[in-house]
Design a protein that fits this description.
22 strands, Alpha-D-Glucose-1,6-Bisphosphate, Chain A, domain 3, 37% helix, 4 domains, 443 residues, six-stranded mixed β-sheet, single chain, six-stranded antiparallel β-sheet, alpha/beta, globular
């Protein structure tokens, strides 16, 4: 069974077994070898039960292609990326569907140094090879070795981090970070209240997607009940993290980007900090105030990581809760958590007081609209706002005025437009939102 729809902009994901099967994983392994030529490949997986059947077939495909598979077993995506870097592998494949519900599984792929293979950097070529299913015989079969880089990763991710004197609630959402949290807090101290640290790929408590407000409710309740200093929520594979204050207010990803970016610039003054096109103006303002160089860029980890290399950035952040760090240019929710703890420790103030000056404008969450002709709508918006002070054709369009801005991006995989916007006041935001919605919904 071949299903081209599971090959997406950034990775491969589908419902098992209706859309994605172990047989497909075998052929993806063969196609990966054929496309990349890699001979040393890290393989990891998350805790989804279907990984028990998918990972062995993926490995079989790689081995039959002559690869030495360096298997690290259960891992977060950040640990997997670090392993590709640390083990000097020529590439890596992880069996995961990230924050998707438990009926899904999927695959993330990288080249050496965890450089992502995505829709515009080889994923569609791999898809085409899978569809043909025409595999040459390998000169010799590969092998599988078992590797463990968890200690090295945690040494790096927790170096200089302390939670002493703080009480925090950490929700792993039954995802992969639950596997690491006990050891993390043995290293950094503090008082931690565990929430859903048990690995369970069926996600019995809530979806492991902290970007959705409903999935933060349990964390908010426990932070309130326990009188904690902050709350932390990881997604299913641990590459995204969101924070909430002692008042149970979720801190948006762009505000966290500003907070961490300011800290990173203390170590690396004058360097670029990359943020995505959906982010608040406050991010660029804070970075500039801290002596850094703000660089707006496209949405998506496979686009941000090469941009970091190109610009020489030590840090990048996305509204969606991805935080990227050099020198291996990959996400780490644990490193991001360490920076937030450091800020609280140094400022000796409540987190709500620390972030309040960064919350400078009224902003919408991302709003999705079903649209048949996306390009026609974007053209109408360009015409309507042709007098904007700035019209940025970077990822969709972002048109900026002195007191408000909006970004409209087409979805890569669905007939949808995604709107993010911000204004100096709630009243102006509401007025401009109504105006834009009328244009989007015009037939």
């Amino acid at each position: 069974m071949f299903n081209k729809d599971i090959y997406r902009a950034y990775d491969i994901r589908g419902i098992v077994p209706d859309e994605f099967t172990a047989e497909e994983a075998y052929h993806i392994g063969r196609a990966y070898v054929e496309f990349t030529g890699a001979k040393k490949v890290v393989v990891a997986r998350d805790m989804r039960p279907t990984g028990d059947e998918i990972e062995p077939e993926l490995i079989r495909g790689l081995v039959e292609g002559g690869v030495r598979v360096m298997r690290i077993g259960l891992a977060t995506s950040p640990l997997f990326y670090f392993a590709v870097h640390k083990l000097k592998a020529e590439g890596g494949i992880m069996v995961t569907a990230s924050h998707n519900p438990g009926v899904y599984n999927g695959i993330k792929m990288t080249r050496e140094e965890a450089i992502p293979i995505a829709g515009d950097t080889g994923l569609m070529e791999i898809r085409d090879l899978v569809e043909k299913r025409d595999w040459p015989g390998a000169a010799r079969a590969g092998e599988v070795t078992e590797e463990n880089v968890t200690k090295d990763y945690l040494d790096m991710a927790t170096e200089g981090v302390s939670a002493e004197g703080l009480k925090m609630v950490v929700d792993s959402g039954n995802g992969m970070t639950g596997m690491l949290m006990k050891e993390v807090f043995e290293r950094i101290g503090g008082e931690v209240v565990p929430l859903y640290w048990e690995l369970d790929g069926t996600f019995p408590n809530h979806e492991a997607d902290p970007l959705k407000g409903e999935n933060m409710k349990d964390l908010h309740e426990v932070v309130n009940r326990e009188g904690a200093d902050l709350g932390v929520a990881f997604d299913g594979d641990g590459d995204r993290v969101f924070f909430c204050t002692e008042k149970s207010e979720t801190i948006p990803g762009d505000i966290t980007t500003a907070l961490i970016g300011r800290e990173v610039l203390k170590k690396h003054p004058g360097t670029p900090v990359i943020y995505d096109i959906r982010a608040s103006r406050a991010v660029a303002e804070v970075i500039s105030e801290a002596g850094g160089v703000p660089v707006m860029w496209k949405v998506g980890h496979s686009l941000i990581k090469p941009k970091m290399r190109e610009e020489g950035a030590w840090f990048a952040g996305e509204v969606s809760g991805h935080y990227f760090f050099a020198p291996w240019y990959a996400e780490s929710g644990i490193i991001a958590m360490g920076y937030v703890l450091k800020v609280i420790q140094e400022q000796k103030r409540a987190l709500s007081e620390i972030v309040a000056p960064l919350w400078r404008y009224a902003k919408t969450p991302e709003i999705n609209y079903e649209v048949e002709d996306k390009e026609a709508v974007i053209t109408r918006l360009k015409d309507k706002y042709s007098d904007a002070e700035k019209m940025i054709d970077l990822d969709g369009i972002r048109f900026e005025y002195q007191d408000w801005w909006a970004n409209v991006r087409p979805s890569n995989t669905e007939p949808k437009l995604r709107l993010n916007m911000e204004a100096d006041s709630k009243e102006l935001l509401a007025e401009k939102l109504r105006e834009i919605e009328e244009i989007i919904k015009l037939r």
